[in-house]
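Worked example 2:
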Amino acid sequence: MNTPRPALVTQEAARRLPRLALWLLCLAYVLPGFVGRQPWKGDDLASFGFMQAMAEGRSGWLAPQLDGLSPDVAALLPYWLGALALKATAGWLAPDVAVRLPFALMLAGTLAATWYATYNLTRLPGAQPVALAFGGEAQPRDYARALADGSLLALIATLGMAQLAHETTPALAQLCFTALVFFGFAAMPFQPRAAVAATLLGLPALALSGAPTLALAYGAAAVLAQLWPGWQAAAPANALQAGARRRLLLATLAAMLASAALGWRLGLWRWQITWPLAAAQWRSLARLFAWFTWPIWPLALWTLWRWRAQLPRPRQQRHLGLPLMMAGMAMLAAVFTPARDRSLLAALPPLAALAALALPTLRRGMAALIDWFTVLFFSGWAIVIWVVWISLQTGVPAKPAANVARLAPGFEPVFQWPALLAALAATLAWAWLARWRTGRHRAALWKSLVLPAAGATLCWLLLMTLWLPALDYGRSLAAQVRSVAAIVGQGACVNTFALNATQLAALRFHGGWQLEPLPRFDAPATCPWLIAPLTASPSQQQWAQRLEVPRPTDKGDTLLVFARNAADGRP
């Protein structure tokens, strides 16, 4: 039966997830990936290099530079936060740990903002369940709280969140402030002061994080929604007075103006538009969308189908219109930008809210299918992770250890008691949860997303404990820099040429050298050593090649080490 509100929910089903369990799940998801690892090759290490240069005074704060290179993403706020953390913790906390502190808080803020955004949206009358004939339907606040729990679980379960949300890059800042803007817009009918504060902070911060266009697009859509006749009809009659509505409108306009001014004044408007013309590019984009947003995209599509009677009125039915607007803009940005996965990250909070709205309409058979598929999928991956770790530690079975040795030559397994205990605790908790969920128990709206969220957290925690030494060896540049240091020594003056930001950051952090970039190979040398990429061919009169140092897991990523010729007349 196609009713405008398809949800039929009892008060029993609207019970909330136990807070202690929810807090422990969030903690188990947020901390691994921010603790105990090296900066990884790519944007994570490059961003750390820019933050370190700013903190040490080698770069300006309004134009981040790393030995003459600018960031790929025109952002300022993420680098400011990392540099401030470095300065505040100098001398008592490792630099690579210090820069992760504000980013860990931003990931936690993303989870909180998504929960509160969904809570406010599902309190709207259009999102509430249908009243039961003999009473007993869910109370509005309890129903909204249960769906907010579901949205948080959906966000944690999303595959695309795992790695990118644990890196110190502008992508995580964009995710955080998108979630904050989402909360600001969602809270307008019920919490106008919080909505004003979140909007005034979120839109300019999003612009400073490298997404001024997205900030203006969100703001413009919100202004149109507020000005359009009948937009406030979805809110309770006494929830939003005329004065509060004007303040919200003025706050959004002020935030848009600030975002545009900051973007223009600080040079953040850099258009990097690409169009996937070839059929192969479109197929690749479709695969990215499918796995990156799994498992929330099937649930979001189910929501649109079951709540389809409300879709012709998205402005009045803001629990559908707002997440659709924000997710659609972020996905459109992902289509036209080079770093599509990082742009798609901003679509996850509103998609998680849409996925939560599917929970009160799921049939029992579909919920059981989700449970059994999730148990088999994540249990299988957990077994693989454990088998590989046991093979590395004991040599039995032999094949997994041989595969690791082939993929990461030179890696020596490391045994760590804290990592083992954490992995054991997570695995036992997963086994108990799987048994509880597949057994007989009381129904709850969020029950179908408990296993996906817990399974994703389990596998991420196992990777960041049992496999972390191997991942660090393969994904950081520490091993490669150690090989260079065996020739160059510690604390030496080193010239560089044509290295990218990742390589420069690694040489400074892992090698501790004083780097002097050369503008060209025939430029006068200022140091006794030169490090260059594999494609370099310096003047044979000035430099003599001493060593080729490949990265252990990627022979194409090779550094060349040159020594100054004795005939040059300098040491």
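The two ends are 86 Å apart (CA to CA). The first strand starts at residue 493 and ends at 496.
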